[in-house]
Amino acid sequence: MTSADVDTPLTKLVGEKTAKALAVHLDLYTAGDLLHHVPRRYDQRGEHTDMRTLEIGEEVTVLAQVLRTTTRPMRQRRGSMLEVVVGDGAGGQLVLTYFQQAWRERDLRPGRWGLFAGKVSDFRGRRQLNSPEYVLLDQGAADGEVAAEVEEFAGALIPVYPAAAAVPTWVIARCVRVVLDTVTMPPDATPSRIRAERKLIDLATALHEIHRPSSKELLYIAKRRLAWDEAFAVQLTLVRRKRDAAAWPAKPRPRRDGGLLAGFDAALPFTLTDGQLAVGEEIAADLAVAHPMHRLLQGEVGAGKTLVALRAMLQVVDAGGQAALLAPTEVLATQHHRGITRMLGPAGRADELDGDPNGTQVALVTGSQGAAARRKVLAKLADGSAGLVIGTHALLYEGVDFADLGLVVVDEQHRFGVEQRDALRAKAEQPPHVLVMTATPIPRTVAMTVYGDLEVSTLSQLPGGRSPIASHVVPVAEKPAFLDRAWRRVVEEVQQGHQAYVVCPRIGDSGTDDDTPPPDDAVEDERRPPVAVLDVAPLLAEGPLRGLRIGVLHGKLPADEKDAIMRTFSAGQLDVLVATTVIEVGVDVPNATAMVILDADRFGVSQLHQLRGRVGRGSAAGLCLLVTEAVAGTPARERLDAVASTLDGFRLAELDLEQRREGDVLGAAQSGRRSHLRLLSLLRDRDLIGEARAEAESLLAEDPDLSAHPLLAAQITRLVDDDRAEYLQKG
Q1: Which residues pair with 597 in a beta bridge?
Q2: Is residue 463 a contact partner of residue 270, using CB atoms and an 8 Å limit?
Q3: How crowded is the C-beta side of 661, counted as CA atoms within 13 Å?
Q4: Comparing 152 with 538, which gets the higher pLDDT?
Q5: What region does 599 belong to: left with phi over 0, alpha with psi -120 to 50, or beta?
Q6: Of the candidates 462, 470, 443, 505, which has an alpha carbon nearest to the alpha carbon of residue 659?
Q7: Is residue 505 within 8 Å of residue 580, measured between CB atoms?
Q8: SS3 string of 245-302?
Q9: How does strand 80-87 pair with strand 59-73?
Q10: Which are the contacts of 602, defined by CB distance < 8 A and separation ≥ 6?
Q11: The pTM is what?
Q12: Running DSSP on this structure, what letter comes out for residue 415?
């Protein structure tokens, strides 16, 4: 064979058929792709995979020993079934079933060890694999390829790869072995100075050790080196884009004495918190320069982010520009419009008789507006008379034009796709300043890795007058009477003159109408569908909440009906609002003190924290009851117990990251494409990410275009392709 390198197609190395399977099922095409398809874990004989932790429906590969075999005739049809019981060495067992394959009993003799791959199912309380693929690791294998596996794995750490049914882990291992023995490794792209200072082994050694580890110590060192490559590539990409963005031109929007902002501040009936003042100064300074602001404003529910954003918007209007606030739902957009108009008073009604002629106008743009109202609003945007614009994704439509868009504020930015945010930004002649807000606290390493091209401001101080929120888990499977007590607590709150929310995961009436996505770590629940608003509301009205005024709110109601219901609830004319997560962000009813979240285990940690932030917004204490059938000791129950135990959103964000799969930090799910990032952990590798950030800033200060480091530039292109780099830049 001619010399091969990392760009050599797999068809030339492992054969047409196997290469096609690797391409179709695992998106692997070249030798380099395969070398960076790293093992998910490593097994070793004498150590065990705890079979009791396997999930039903999961595709697994387990290292196990044959304990016993039984062949018996089938009841419903002719022929026999071979049943093989395998164990993990620690009491866990799986049953392997083979139909009409009694001959396998000669292979699968008690005492033999093997790798077994298949989908976990359940039969009469026993976990089993139906007709699993396997490779035996004991001596005596007749097949030449299997004998090679035995030699490879005997006494060694056994790599278990992310695999597919058509390409089991041992086939991948066999292909990796061919590539490692054939391919000339690439030169190391990481500068030798950095490798020496960071005590990183060379790339060729790392790739060999990650696939064929000589020891656990060398495996750890190899993982660290490859994780460094990933972190360094991400940080170099982010730092470069941050430097590029800082060089873009933008119209300065400096603060003006005696303008709308000064008048607004003077009329505030309360004092801004130290945090609001400090973050406000950061944003004001950003707006005053000739380069676009790119800032992330994060803070706890109720920390006053909207007030900070409004002050920034007024600064831009004072400087002759327009500011647009993009909200994820019509309910929230309408509430923002109503609240901002109320706070501004006459200064926000320049077009009305009682308005201040030196003020501005506040426009609302939603998808449900009638044609006449829409034309009127769009004219105000186009001629600049509406300085403040609040809207949903309808702001992104063609035909929505601004006279001079100076600031884009994106509320709850995780609700919007990259393209949506960019479409609004493109409506300005020069790049506008951008402020993105989130009430979902972001761990430092996530902020550094996913939002690393943004400056980050944090509001951690709650305004005065906010009340504490008590949270409790209501375990109905163990203590059914607790649910009755939960409904009595709702009645008690209403009797004291307060209001309550009841939150459900589903709307009802159809199987595809959910407002609420499952949490990232959710396992498909086979017991029953989640409870639905349209089912729960009448049951409560006829049962434990009989006599109370109950309203229903969900995402499929017409916009005017949603707005009317929220107005009615805000005015105190409803006692209880039964809703989906449409109330998750922005809804502000200070008199609402209680919330019951049904099937709380169907929600993610951050979502639960957001939801309970809807209560305790006034002077009375808040109460949040998390109703669940999850039993003690399960991951779902542990998640709820953690939420109930703390109001620290940043601690919960860390927990969220710990409990769910971190996924691809560059948003492969958004782009729908495979990423080379495999080993970087936002939790485990905090220090590594910080070191990579520092090295990236230092290197790019010396060599902005990486012209002196062409291999490193090529590595970034491989690890962070153009689509994903664009995702980072826009995010």
Answers
A1: 503, 626
A2: yes
A3: 10
A4: 538
A5: left
A6: 443
A7: yes
A8: HHCCCCCCCCCCCCCHHHHHHHHCCCCCCHHHHHHHHHHHHHHCCCCCCEEEEEECCC
A9: antiparallel
A10: 505, 516, 518, 519, 522, 525, 530
A11: 0.64
A12: G
Please say whether the beta carbons of 624 and 413 come within 8 A: no
Neighbouring C-alpha atoms within 13 Å toward the C-beta of 22: 28
Contact call for residues 74 and 150 (beta carbons, < 8 A): no
Distances (CA, A) of 648 to 299, 441, 642, 686: 11, 9, 10, 20
Could you give the CA distance from residue 675 to residue 724 in angstroms, rounded to a whole number?
9
201 with 192: CB under 8 angstroms?
no
Distance CA(541)–CA(505), nearest Å, equals: 19
pLDDT of the residue at 411: 84
Q: What own/partner pairs with CB < 8 Å and gap ≥ 24 does 698-705 have?
A: 699/191, 699/194, 699/236, 700/236, 700/239, 700/240, 700/243, 704/240, 704/243
Output the pLDDT for position 521. Answer: 41
Cα(482)–Cα(465) distance, integer angstroms: 31
664: alpha, beta or left, given left = phi > 0 and alpha = psi -120 to 50? beta
Is residue 116 within 8 Å of 62, Cβ to Cβ? yes
pLDDT in tens, 426-448: 777 788 898 988 876 666 666 66
Token pair in block for residue 267: 């009329």
Q: How many other CB atoms are found less than 10 A from the CB of residue 440?
A: 21
Distance CA 202, CA 180 (A): 15
Instruction: Show the tokens assigned to 270.
Output: 């309360």
Angle among Cα 16, 22, 28 to the nearest 5 degrees reads 110
What mean pLDDT do residues 530-559 have?
Answer: 92
Which residue type, as a one-letter code, is found at position 216? K
**Helix, strand, or coil here: 592?**
strand
Angle between helices 649-659 and 605-612 (to 10 degrees): 150
- Single out the residue of 473, 483, 481 nearest to residue 633, CA to CA: 473
Q: Encoding tokens for residue 443?
A: 């761990």
The mean of the pLDDT values for the chain is 83
Which of 62-66, 657-661, 676-680, 704-708 is the least confident region?
657-661
- Give me 589's structure tokens: 């009813």
SS3 track for 176-238:
HHHHHHHECCCCCCCCHHHHHHCCCCCHHHHHHHHHCCCCHHHHHHHHHHHHHHHHHHHHHHH
Measured from the Cβ of residue 687, the count of other Cβ atoms closer than 10 Å reads 9
Which one, of 43, 33, 39, lies nearest residue 210 by Cα? Answer: 39
Is the pLDDT at 280 greater than 90? The verdict is: yes
Whether the Cβ atoms of residue 608 and residue 471 lie closer than 8 Å to each other: no
